[in-house]
Amino acid sequence: MRKNIVAGNWKMNTTVPEGIALAKAVAAKAAEVPAEVGLVVAPPFTHLCAVAEALKGSPVGLSAQNCADKTKGAYTGEVSVDMLVSTGCQYTILGHSERRQYYGETDEKLVEKTKLALAAGLKVILCVGENLEEREAGKHFDVVKAQTENVLYNFTAEDMANVIVAYEPVWAIGTGKTATAEQAEEIHACIRKVLAAKFGQTVADDTTILYGGSCKPSNAKELFAQPDIDGGLIGGAALKADDFIQIALSF
Length: 251
Ligand code: PEP
Known about the structure:
Elements: E1 4-9, H1 16-29, E2 37-42, H2 48-55, E3 61-64, H3 81-87, E4 91-94, H4 97-102, H5 107-119, E5 123-128, H6 132-136, H7 140-152, E6 163-167, H8 181-199, H9 201-206, E7 209-211, H10 217-224, E8 231-234, H11 241-248
Bound molecules: phosphoenolpyruvate.
Phosphoenolpyruvate is lined by residues 9, 168, 173-174, 212-215, 233-237.
């Protein structure tokens, strides 16, 4: 059966000392969260080693926010999957809308990155989601279906054991506008159907699908109560340990 997960995407926030303090605060409160809810934090690359150290002995998982689409060599500024693994990282977020929007991340690139991440033993948190224009044009199902298929249909049912999908409507990220529980649920159910069509119902039922977009302590309960919402990818609210843990207590 699929696992509930609450993952914190710190984005480009916190200095290394601030990140260590935040990780320690999350680790200190992690015992309040039932063991069946997985906690993950995704600090910037520069923090990974130090945060891995700060999380030692706690159940909190460690994620990167991205990885290179090449294994090694002359790719200035890039960070490879082997480098991530060597920090103690177990996950990487891929395809966040900010990367798609500002850094030209394409589905093709995400296939390469996902292949490398899975081969290195990382779990992938793959983000999909429509922008405001696409939602207003009624294209949200088509956009999310295409993003999911374009990347994940290149993988096997076995690979899917290490893939988590995060539905993040772009118009709800960092805007304070949350998708209603119904809006989120209908897309999550659609993603699960798309997965079932390729990998079968069991794999679809076993895949964790997170919601992201202005999720906070005040709305997490309603979102997580939906049958196909298995937790959250949290941005702003993950920068406060108390709020992050409160969200994880919302199942
Ligand atoms: C995110 O960027 O992954 C996110 C969900 O951000 P926020 O919670 O701040 O909307």
